[in-house]
Amino acid sequence: MNQFQIETAQNVTIDQNSSNLGERMLAYIIDSIVITMYTILIILLLVSLDVDFDDLWALYLVATLPAFLYYLLLETFTDGKTIGKGLMHLRVVKLDGSKPNFGNYFVRWILRIIDVSLTSGAAAVITILIRGNGQRIGDIAAGTTVISERKRVSLQDTLLKELPEDYKPSFPQVTVFKDTEIQTIKELYEKAKRNGNHNVIVSLDKRIKQVMQVTTNLRPIDFVDIVIKDYNYYTQK
Question: What is the pLDDT of residue 2?
Answer without folding.
Answer: 55
